[in-house]
Design brief:
Pfam families: Rhodanese. With 104 residues, the chain is α/β, with parallel strands linked by helices. The protein has five helices and five strands.
Length: 104
């Protein structure tokens, strides 16, 4: 059975420095307008089933939201649809910001 891995903020920061991953923000447009992780792209959760084909199934893909709940749903959906290297940011952008990391 396909699954995803939960990432800590520190793990995501290291992966972003290394490069080669897709960071997907699944929050609403209104939430994204209040701030996002700079390297992230926005695909709201309700559009994930329609837009999943835009992402590379074989590339590392990290989903995040406000706290980690919605992004876990997106990560599970991606894993169930053949994505092999899928992650969920634990604590979401809230944990990212609390760690003092940049929010755009």
């Amino acid at each position: 059975m396909s699954s995803f891995k939960n990432l800590s903020v520190a793990e995501l920061e290291a992966m972003l420095q290394k490069g080669g991953l897709r960071l997907v923000d699944v929050r609403t447009d209104a939430e994204v307008a209040r701030g996002k992780i700079p390297q992230g792209e926005s695909i709201p959760l309700h559009l994930i089933p329609l837009r999943l084909s835009e992402l590379d199934k074989n590339a590392p893909t990290v989903f995040y939201c406000q706290m980690g709940g919605r992004s876990a749903q997106a990560a599970a959906f991606a894993a169930a649809n053949g994505f092999v290297d899928v992650y969920n940011l634990q604590g979401g952008i809230t944990a990212w910001a609390q760690a003092g990391l940049p929010v755009a």
